[in-house]
Design goal:
alpha/beta; eight-stranded mixed beta sheet; seven-stranded parallel beta sheet; 27 helices
Length: 728
């Protein structure tokens, strides 16, 4: 039997779960079992847990459906646990170094106790000093083993479930389990306090709790606050004959009064909440209980008498809580600001959708794919694309547009119900209640993104204010993902309250739907000679360089690679042109509107660290990595995984190596196919040609997730045919 069982629920925190599990496996004290609780065997968290289980036999994942909530996940872990003591750890928290050794030493000195409370740190998600809120409470406890009645102020009500170790036999004897409902820690802490007989304290930090940027879900507005009273009723009924009833009563009703005094938490049913709380107060008030002094005591008396109107007046609860309407939009001209402010007071247009791609560079990427699919499936939706003035002439015929900064631009932004972007809307755009913002992203992240860039000085300096970035993230309602890797990295890079839609990237739909005729048409439009092997060369942007540099002598590459090779040069979208026009066997396609068209035309891809490799992999055509400065790029930009260890094809580091793999055909050989197959299984997970349809049906038409087309397995997809190569 292990000394400790450590239970780690993981719902909604798959992006940070590996850090929690690693903090346990890195402990110097090794007598434990680690039980991650995942939503389902095929969930993102399960992938992380299974990978850890494959490396360490002490990791034993179990599963609990999301519908069971946090309480169900913890109870599932409890039923599996075999250790002498049980600890709980949230999936985005970590154990402090040496924590288990300190717990073992303390338990050895105290002997068997029912509960060992310990300190924890609350760490700001971004910056600021960590706090230790449990320290003052634990400092007042007796030095050795004591009964709860000897320290009545120390109850589990004031501590989270992960701030204590529990003797598993004690939990079994009293049949203790986490109660259902959103305030399960409160109920659990109260029930444990009533049942415990021997308690001790460890005056050192064991858990480091990461405060979420969006705050605790329990503090969000909603009807779930009424369930707080269910937990209070249950605990106080169990504590009726306990010496701790007075302390529990006071602490529990301190939580109740805090909720009652926050009208923003109870958008409906405030009076009903207050009246029920008053009935519970009168029913459970212990004999001889004396209310605190001061204003808190006044609140106790008002609650006991059911004087809701007086309570509201005392707490100032009739103040308006709508700070959103006070935000000032920032269009440049005074007249435009006034018009925008006026339009924000008008009702949302339920049939208006606004799209933008690459900060207005044109009709492109996933917003364009969703726009086209909405015209087919939701023709009642009026769709307006936002573009810079120099992109207007390149818009497809029939696409309604608004020039960025114009009067129409601010009007449609103020009135639109649906807003779709692959980057972000302007700083001054107000997120209106009832509007729906869809962030499509524009690639799978290899390089560090969002707040993960903060530790890389060159990138952070160019990014600007991370606070402003996160203010824009707060407008997102949905965030698209094409694979589970992306889902987890977006969660880390852009912490917010949005819902992740694992639907695939709509811009990649064409890789499963294009025909041979369409591929041939694109090649003709780009000027690819008949019968030639078109190699797309797409290097990414270097944050430590100024201007575009191909990084490769393309004419020399063509000469060395073979006479049938032509190069399609596509610079990063930060640059309007890769070189001074096309010449000879080099065709500059940087200015072409659609990167998807360019990929369809190419028989093979050569890139360094560009995210285009993840999209191109959907075509199941050869990919070669040209990594002449990988170490520098990794150190200056930061990456999420080692591309050199899991590439999509052959890795070359010199021009000679690159030319050789084309000259000898190994770029498309068996080894290349094997690497690509493994890469595709990881990163082409959801891109099956139906992403745009899923978005339109879910967001615009309001269809439930279960009604959407299921993801087609990778083995059953038929990528668009290449022009000169036979697909593997």
């Amino acid at each position: 039997m292990p000394r400790f069982s450590i239970i780690v629920p993981s719902h909604g925190v798959a992006g940070r779960l590996s850090q929690a599990l690693d903090s346990v496996l890195a402990q110097s004290y090794g007598d434990f079992e680690l039980i991650p609780v995942c939503d389902a065997p095929d969930s993102p968290a399960a992938d992380v847990a299974d990978a850890h289980a494959g490396r360490d036999s002490r990791v034993a994942p179990v599963h609990s459906p999301p519908s069971a909530g946090l309480s169900g996940a913890r109870n599932t872990g409890l039923r599996t646990a075999t250790g002498a003591y049980v600890l709980f750890l949230d999936g985005d928290d970590t154990l402090a170094p040496g924590a288990l050794a300190a717990l073992d030493a303390r338990l050895t000195s105290t002997g068997d106790v029912d509960v060992l409370y310990f300190e924890h740190e609350r760490t700001p998600w971004w910056e600021g000093e960590a706090t230790n809120p449990a320290a003052p409470l634990l400092a007042q406890s007796p030095p050795g083993v004591f009964s709860p009645s000897q320290a009545p102020r120390l109850t589990g009500v004031q501590l989270p479930a992960w701030s204590a170790a529990y003797r598993r036999a004690f939990l079994g004897e009293h049949r203790l389990a986490f109660p259902e409902g959103p305030f399960t820690d409160l109920g659990w802490g109260g029930l444990v306090t009533v049942a415990a007989e021997r308690v001790a304290v460890l005056r050192s930090v064991v858990v480091r709790h990461l405060l979420r940027r969006q705050g605790s879900r329990l503090n969000l507005p909603g009807a779930h606050h009424h369930q707080l009273l269910d937990q209070v009723d249950m605990v106080l009924a169990r504590a009726a004959d306990s010496q701790l009833s007075g302390a529990l009563f006071e602490q529990l009703f301190a939580v109740v009064l805090k909720t009652a005094s926050r009208p923003e938490r109870l958008p409906a049913g405030r009076r009903a909440f207050f009246r029920r709380a008053g009935r519970l107060y009168r029913a459970h008030r212990p004999a001889g209980f004396r209310a605190p002094g001061g204003s808190v005591g006044v609140q106790h008396r008002l609650l006991a008498s059911g004087a809701y109107s007086a309570f509201r007046a005392l707490r100032g609860a009739n103040r308006s809580a709508s700070g959103t309407a006070e935000r000032i939009p920032r269009p440049r001209m005074l007249r435009t600001r006034l018009r925008y402010a006026r339009d924000l007071r008008r009702p949302l247009d339920p049939d208006l959708a606004v799209y933008c791609a690459y900060w207005g560079r044109g009709y492109a990427c996933s917003p364009a794919a969703i726009h086209a699919k909405a015209a087919e499936l939701a023709p009642h939706i009026r769709s307006v694309f936002l573009v810079e003035p120099d992109a207007v002439d390149a818009l497809p015929k029939g696409v309604e547009h608004a020039v960025i900064g114009s009067r129409k631009y601010w009007e449609v932004l103020a009135r639109a119900t649906y807003l779709v972007n692959n980057a972000n809307f302007a700083e001054g755009v107000v997120k209106r209640p009832g509007s729906v913002h869809v962030q499509t992203q524009h690639g799978t992240p290899l390089k560090k993104m969002g707040v993960d860039q903060s530790t890389y000085p060159v990138v952070a300096a160019a990014t600007g204010s991370f606070a402003k970035l996160l203010g824009r993230v707060d407008r997102w309602d949905y965030n698209l993902s094409s694979n589970r890797h992306s889902t987890q990295m977006w969660e880390r890079a852009f912490p917010g309250s949005y819902e992740a839609l694992e639907y695939g990237y709509p811009r990649n739909d064409v890789y499963c739907t294009a025909t041979a005729d369409e591929v041939a048409r694109v090649r003709r439009e780009l000027g690819v000679p008949e019968g030639k092997t078109a190699v797309l060369y797409a290097p990414t942007h270097r944050d430590y360089r100024t201007g575009f540099d191909t990084g490769l002598d393309l004419e020399a590459f063509c000469a060395a690679a073979g006479e049938d090779v032509v190069v399609l040069l596509r610079a990063h979208y930060f640059y309007d042109q890769g070189r001074a026009g096309s010449s000879g066997r080099i065709i500059d396609v940087t200015g072409h509107r659609s990167s998807e068209d360019v990929c369809l035309a190419a028989d093979a891809l050569v890139t360094d660290y560009s995210s285009i490799m993840f999209d191109y992999a959907n075509l199941d055509r050869p990919i070669v990595v040209y990594a002449d400065d990988w170490d520098v790029y990794r150190e200056t930009r930061g990456v999420y995984f080692d591309l050199m260890a899991t590439p999509p094809g052959p890795v070359t580091r010199t021009p000679e190596e690159l030319a050789q793999v084309f000259r000898d055909g190994s770029y498309a050989g068996a080894r290349s196919r094997a690497l690509r197959a493994e890469f595709r299984s990881r990163f082409c997970e959801f891109d099956d040609g139906l992403a745009a349809e899923r978005v339109v049906r879910r967001v615009f038409l309001g269809e439930p997730p279960e009604a959407l087309p299921p993801v087609i397995p990778l083995a059953e997809r038929v990528p668009a045919p290449a022009a000169t190569l036979v697909r593997s």
